[in-house]
Amino acid sequence: MYNNLNEEQNLISNNNYNLNQNLMSNDYNNNEELIKAFIGPNYEKITHSLFNFSGFFFSFLYMYYRKMFLYGILLFLFSTLINFFSKNFFPGIIINAILGLAFNQLYLYYVKNKITKIKNENPNLSNEELKNICASKGGTSIGKLFLGFILEIILVIVIFIVAIVFGLSNALGDIFGDIINTVKNTKNEIYDGAIIFSTKENITEDFSISVPEIFEDNSNSYMYDYKYDNNTGVFTSCRFLFGKIDEFSDSENMIEQMANYYQTSPKPNEKINNIIWHNFNYTNELGTFYYYAMNKNNTTYLLDYSAYKDSGSDCEYYKDIILYSIESLN
Q1: Are 323 and 300 part of one and the same domain?
Q2: 102: left (phi over 0), alpha (psi -120 to 50) or beta
Q3: I need a labelling partner for 126 at 20 to 30 A (CA). Which of 18, 155, 165, 273 fits?
């Protein structure tokens, strides 16, 4: 009798084990069907490939396309922040390479979380009904891609407005300059409120410049970039940029357009160190802004000097020191 009882218990245990295994197997198969429905036609590539080339080449745009909207926006803002500090394209390539390697796993994590939420919100639906919901929630969307792109434009505009208020617009011009130049791709020579410095040539080979030691040096090979701040408030800095402008071939025409845009008139030309400078300045609630442009070898160069309202009278004095120190090297 004792042996029979043990045999019955073993049989029950084995049956329970087999039942649990079958349930686990069914649940796994059902989840895989839901994942396949959510991902769509590229299920095999995403679940078996180690590298996602779409993620590498299109980064946050591909995230919008895959309806990973929040992920895409966060990546866009992170990339913008990295570019702000690096001012070159290498970090962007590294970010895209990492995304190419990690995208499939990240996307599967996103998909599984979405499926879990769908199942929890619809506990009484059949597996086929859940698959239909997954297919509608997942997959790809051209609409989301365009929506993400439009939101990026809005974010860039907001960032530039904030940057203008805090005197960072020229620094952000470094970030977006290549993008803007690529979109324009031509010399339209029409001033529309923004000047983008070239990032293609080494300006330090063409000019020498002397700057007071009190200025912080943020220069690179294609631009002289210095800033002085007395640190007594928000609008307490004076900063200048000196570099090449690709959009204009005629410096005098550029200054005339800029002066007209800011509803003022160009100043008389100044000849300093055998360089003829076309110039103007204007003042608003933020401070006074000076622009000196000249031509060399059919190329336009611009000195953009910003003296914010609380920067002190020394900013005007430093401007003249810097301007009179610029000399052509060839």
Answers
A1: yes
A2: alpha
A3: 18
Q: What is the DSSP string of 95-124?
A: HHHHHHHHHHHHHHHHHHHHHHHHHHH-TT
Give the pTM. Answer: 0.47
Sheet strands (E) in 182-266:
207-208, 216-217, 223-229, 237-245
Q: Is the dihedral of CA 226, 230, 232, 235 positive or negative?
A: negative
Please check whether residues 232 and 208 belong to one and the same domain.
yes
Q: Is residue 161 part of a domain?
A: no
Model confidence pLDDT, tens digit, residues 275-330 = 999 999 999 999 999 999 999 988 899 999 999 999 988 898 999 999 999 999 87
Give the whole-angstrom CA distance, residue 58 versus residue 148: 13
Report the candidate in 141, 199, 144, 159 with the shortest Cα–Cα distance to residue 79: 159
**Residue 134 shares a structural domain with residue 264:** no
| Residues of the domain holding 36 | 7-156
| 234 and 280 share one domain | yes
Residues 266-283: tens digit of each pLDDT: 999 999 999 999 999 999
CA distance 309 to 306: 10
How far is Cα 118 from Cα 114, in angstroms, rounded to an integer? 6
One domain, residues 173 and 320 = yes
Is 2 part of a structural domain of the chain?
A: no
Q: Which residue has the tokens 């001012």?
A: 87
Element (H, E) at 280: strand 275-284
